[in-house]
């Protein structure tokens, strides 16, 4: 990667490029593709898409956000049977749960069509969607009847299944309950739920503080003592824990101290081997967002500059930077398996836009 200025791009160029990348990656039906050039990511994730919609909303692209919310609502209602079965606690195997990603047409992947079985049972995307949808409504977005019906259905689903072990936001460790996932579920239930949902969220909050804190810090998952950069989500955007909460502040300090790579970017977690475990653009922006919210604009600006330096000549941002991987011997196997690091990653562009907005707002 070379610096932003070496390609004659300005920060304003990257903002415009990021909005364009996200818009160009939005299917006519409203779903956002995770990455248009990386076949494995040629799907619509609720998690990635919700944060893309949030970023677009912040930058005045409300019509794009609204189209995404309609896409999710239509997709959820088209597969209502899966949600109803989970609400009745007819869980069966994880393969029968509502999936974390859909095709851009809003369909569930047909069995045997993917190169490998995807770890699809993930709950965080549904909680994230509810939170972002509520934020969309608070900003003046008009919710149609189908969107409201879908939100009610997802709320009931999370009330029933929100406590279950599932794959985390990195599609890993499917037999554990993950802290960031639990935070997303709580946030979704509180943001868009009725009295029953809010009561269920309170129960899950008790679980969060009883089982997901160790030595004064939130941890990656139950039984762990490690941190994961996704723990920042608890504070931003979800507000499950205030930014200045002592446990949250300790957690963020650990993320910065333990997960900052040699070039200054933020890693997912120690021991990560995906493409060698590099520094992630979207997580670096997230840590910058946390600094901005904490009043440390200098640190936030430094991380913003790091993100901007990762821009490639096309004006695109990658998923991660692997110049200094944790496990160099593991890079080649992923390149051979799936190709070069996904670029552009829409979620990376979205979090860049969020950090720019946070600093501008401040």
Q: What descriptive keywords fit this protein?
A:
disordered N terminus; two-stranded antiparallel ribbon; globular; 362 residues; mainly alpha; three-stranded antiparallel sheet; Glycosyltransferase; single chain; 7 strands
SSE topology sketch:
Layout: H1 11-24, E1 44-45, H2 46-58, H3 62-78, H4 80-87, E2 101-102, H5 124-138, H6 145-161, H7 179-192, H8 195-211, E3 213-214, E4 217-218, H9 246-259, E5 266-267, E6 279-280, H10 281-294, H11 297-309, E7 320-321, H12 331-338, H13 346-361
Antiparallel strand pairs: 1-2, 3-4, 5-6, 6-7
Helix pairs in contact: 1-13, 2-3, 2-5, 2-13, 3-6, 4-6, 5-6, 5-7, 6-7, 6-8, 7-8, 10-11, 10-13, 11-13
Domain GH15-like: 22-286
Pfam family, one: Glyco_hydro_15
GO biological process, one term: carbohydrate metabolic process
């Amino acid at each position: 990667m070379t610096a932003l200025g070496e390609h004659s791009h300005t920060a304003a160029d990257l903002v415009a490029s990021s909005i364009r990348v996200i818009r160009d990656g939005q299917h006519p039906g409203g779903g956002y593709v995770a990455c248009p050039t990386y076949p494995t990511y040629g799907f619509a994730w609720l998690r990635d898409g919700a944060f893309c919609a949030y970023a677009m909303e912040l930058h005045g692209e409300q019509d794009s956000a609204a189209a995404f919310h309609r896409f999710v609502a239509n997709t959820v209602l088209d597969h209502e049977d899966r949600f109803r079965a989970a609400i009745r606690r007819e869980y069966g195997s994880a393969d029968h749960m509502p999936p974390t990603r859909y095709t851009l047409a809003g369909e569930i992947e047909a069995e045997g069509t993917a190169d490998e079985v995807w770890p699809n049972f993930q709950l965080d995307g549904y909680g994230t969607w509810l939170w972002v949808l509520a934020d969309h409504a608070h900003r003046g977005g008009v919710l149609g009847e189908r969107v409201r019906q879908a939100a009610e259905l997802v709320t009931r689903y999370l009330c029933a299944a929100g406590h279950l072990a599932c794959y985390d936001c990195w599609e890993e460790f499917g037999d554990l309950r993950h802290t960031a996932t639990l935070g997303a579920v709580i946030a979704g239930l509180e943001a868009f739920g009725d009295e029953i949902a809010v009561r269920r969220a309170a129960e899950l909050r008790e679980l969060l503080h009883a089982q997901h804190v160790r030595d004064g810090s939130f941890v990656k998952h139950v039984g762990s003592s490690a941190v994961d950069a996704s723990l920042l989500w608890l504070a931003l955007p979800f507000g499950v824990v205030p930014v200045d909460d002592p446990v949250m502040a300790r957690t963020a300090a650990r993320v910065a101290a333990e997960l900052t790579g040699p070039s200054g970017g933020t890693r997912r977690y120690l021991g990560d081997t995906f493409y060698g475990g590099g520094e992630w653009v979207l997580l670096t922006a997230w840590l910058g967002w946390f600094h901005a919210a904490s009043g440390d604009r200098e640190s936030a600006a430094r991380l913003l500059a790091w993100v901007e330096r990762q821009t490639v000549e096309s004006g695109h941002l990658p998923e991660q930077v692997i110049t200094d991987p944790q496990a160099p011997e593991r890079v080649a196997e992923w390149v051979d398996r799936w190709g070069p690091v996904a670029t552009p990653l829409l979620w990376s562009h979205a979090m860049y836009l969020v950090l720019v907005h946070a600093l501008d707002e401040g």
